[in-house]
Amino acid sequence: MIEKKVEIINQKGLHARAAAKLINLSHTFESDILIQKGDNEVNGKSILGLLMLAAQMGTVLTIRTDGPDEGHALNSICELITNKFEENK
Amino acid sequence: MKLLKGEGISNGISIGRALLILDEDLVIIEEKLSKKKLEKSITKFKAAVREAKKEIREIKKGLKSKVAEEHAFIFDTHILLIEDKTLHAETFIYMKEHECNAEWAFNQVLIRFLREFDSLDDPYFMERAKDLEDVGKRVLRLLLKEKEMSIGQINEDVIIIGHEFGPSNITTFDNPHIKGFATDIGGQTTHTAIIAKALKLPAILGLHNITKQVMSGDMIILDSVNGDVIVNPDKKTLKTYRKKEITYRDEEKHFLAETKEPSISRDGCKITLQANIELPSEAQAAVDNGAEGIGLYRTEFLFLNMDPELPTEEDHYQIYHQIATAVGNRVITIRTLDLGGEKYFHRTLIRKKENNPVLGLRGVRLCLNRKDIFRTQLRGLLRAAQEFPSIRIMFPLITSLNELKKVLDFYNMTRDELMAEIPGFDAKPEIGIMIEVPSAAMVADYLAKKVDFFSIGTNDLMQYLLAIDRGNDDVTYLYDPFHPGFIRIMARVIEAAAEHSIDISCCGEMASSPLYACLLIHLGLTTLSMNPASLPNINHFIRAINFAKLKDSVPSIINKPNASELRKSYIKSIKGILSKNDYDHFFGNGI
Q1: Pairing of strands B331-335, B391-395
Q2: Inter-chain contact A54–B125, Cβ cutoff 8 Å?
Q3: For the segment B77-86, what is each residue's pLDDT rounded down to a tens digit?
Q4: Of residues A13, A15, A43, nearest to B86 (C-beta)
Q5: Which domain holds residue B330?
Q6: What fold, for A2-86?
Q7: What are the pLDDT digits (tens) for B395-405?
Q8: Distance (Å, whole) CA B241 – CA B180
């Protein structure tokens, strides 16, 4: 299992559209994906979990991946977040 | 164990499992399933999820042309929510743990997640609960499609929990397994409360957020004497309340047997107790509970039951005939149509949505506006009165002498018509008015000259006088019969009636509260009308009390500027007069 901290830098935070993008990405990996904010850790493949993190701009998340493609998964997810979920605004 | 405080309706104690109804169309009941049936239920759930997904895709497709692509993503979120593995896994775990049906399990899991969203501190993320609720309800509807569950089919003792129930919802609760209900909003004087009392259904209203604090299946104690809801009581509390429930029922039985005894206080005041009814079927219950007459028959339900049709003259005549027959020679006061306000709705009569219906076209205003309907009702009433001299006619919402004159002119004209049409017709029933608008109360001395009786409608009088919406639980704390403004206006009306020697009574729900009944009698009323279920209680109370021993004299009550001080000294004084048993029964341990 590997992990990495990443800050949410887009203005709207991990809102519904961003969360949907993250979920769609997570589903392309075989590895388990866990996302943690403070004491809360949720399944990175569950939109319910992601939304309930209520992660606003400035939140630092810990991403953990575990499985055959964990390295690729971790990098892709962190990239999506640092790229502000590829939103224009 | 959790204690919630609200307003208790129709005294009693009920114990049962909570059944949360958040949406009238979604009545979800727990079913215990065998292993085989459990697997079947899971298959059904998966099919419902697939179907729901298909539906959402269709909606999204339909939208694309109309709404900008910008918004279509919302439905992608919805699809992700519906597919959410956590949601499914939790549902299956719940089903296996409780060996129950999918819809019940899914609903329980859904509510748990909705509450988690609710506890977030970011408004954007809190709002996502709406998305989850939307998709959840879609799945539930599909699951329930063939089931057609309704409240009438509930076959286990339950206490229904909901945000708010209207009068028409409550009538569907007439099922012996429904032990009571509790709601977030509402109060003593709403029509919901009135119907609950008529059905003898214990209820606690105005609990603010009980729908957020209780899950279906939780053990619930409703103590409507004290307005308490106890959620998941510990063993000891449950035992105490089981005992209380029995004691209360025994006392009620005892009081009911006592209703044959006249309601005379210890110091010899004879109080006439009458009943308020909405349905003809209640007339018998009223007599059984010791009513010496019907102080108020609300004819609204006659109209509402026929919606969108209107009752004919014959319909009116038959119903009044039926009630008068049921109550024998006892007086029966029939109030002409008082539609409007609150949630009463008749498709033919009320067409326009009013911004402020309580101050709108209601009561005699509506009748004078629709004289055809008024005339039909008056003719039916007069024909029944020809046979039953016990019938009295009462007009609602009178605001001035001029308005009263208009009503009386129309009434006399209708009566003249009948005299011309029917040989020997000479019915001359007593005519009275409701005093429920402050302006009418202020000119009660003028109005008294024109009518045979007054009946004070304390629910509306309080609403108009103190400017408090009857159904808004954020302001019900202002409802206070000890308010000096209310006491003064009551004293004024009572004095005007006495001066002109006309009959006066009170037909507001206030009379069913022992404390307020005591106040009303103290102020000079000798006739009180209330829901039939409360009659044995109030009869017992009157027989137990000695008005002469009340410490506060009437002039001193009228001149007390502080309502809460007056209330305190009043209760203390009552406590000194009643036996401990009686005091505990009527006032519980709270108040």
Answers
A1: parallel
A2: yes
A3: 899 999 999 9
A4: A43
A5: 283-432
A6: Histidine-containing Protein; Chain: A; (3.30.1340)
A7: 999 999 999 99
A8: 15
